[in-house]
Structures are given as structure tokens and as C-alpha cells.
Write a structure and sequence with these properties.
mainly beta, 4-stranded mixed sheet, 4-stranded antiparallel sheet
Length: 110
């Protein structure tokens, strides 16, 4: 008999809204994640603003999603990303780990 491959387990998504301190356009987020957990950060931004995201530390990469949940072009597997936004709404920043890791993320909207 052929061995049964282990089941593929979809990672759990933990969602958290990013809020900026009063009068600030950016903030730093830190946390811990594993390959079994995607840390998703929601950032509300308006069309025409520039969103920039920088992963400062951690064995992880980013994926950025539009408010409709579709992946932003050329935004998967990156450690930093910046673009002028084509639509308003809650953008999703996913931190995806290749191993258990602590991470630190800078998020700015201008």
C-alpha cells in the first residue's frame, strides 16, 4: 500500500485592525506567528493615498490584498511594498511565516 500523505491544513487567519496614533500617518506593529497562522492587518485608506509596508524583522513575507480580498499585483512574497491606492477601503496586509517567528512591521498611509 502507498502511504497516505498528511492532510494539507489551511493556516488560521488572525485579523487585527491597525489604528494610527492621533495626528500620525504611521505605526509599528509587532507580534509572533507560525506557518499555521497568517496574521492579517486591516488598514483603512482612501483612493489616491500611498500605503507603504515594511517588514523589519522576522522569518516571514507579506502579501497585500485589495479591500475586495483579491491579491494586489506583485505584492506576494515581499518584505516591503508601497503603492498609490486605486480604491478606498480596508486593505489587508498578511504576514506569512516560513517558521515560528517574531516580527515587526511598519505601516504608513500618506
Amino acid at each position: 500500500p502507498t502511504p497516505t500523505p498528511p492532510p494539507v491544513v489551511d493556516p488560521t487567519v488572525q485579523t487585527e485592525r491597525v489604528s494610527f496614533p492621533a495626528g500620525q500617518t504611521g505605526t509599528q506593529v509587532s507580534g509572533r506567528t507560525t506557518p499555521a497562522i497568517v496574521r492579517r492587518y486591516l488598514v483603512n485608506a482612501q483612493q489616491g493615498q500611498t500605503l507603504s509596508v515594511q517588514l523589519n524583522s522576522g522569518a516571514a513575507t507579506l502579501a497585500i490584498r485589495y479591500p475586495n480580498g483579491k491579491l494586489v499585483e506583485d505584492s506576494s512574497g515581499v518584505v516591503n511594498w508601497q503603492a498609490q491606492l486605486s480604491r478606498s477601503g480596508d486593505y489587508q496586509i498578511d504576514v506569512i511565516a516560513s517558521q515560528d517567528t517574531d516580527f515587526q512591521l511598519d505601516v504608513n498611509v500618506r
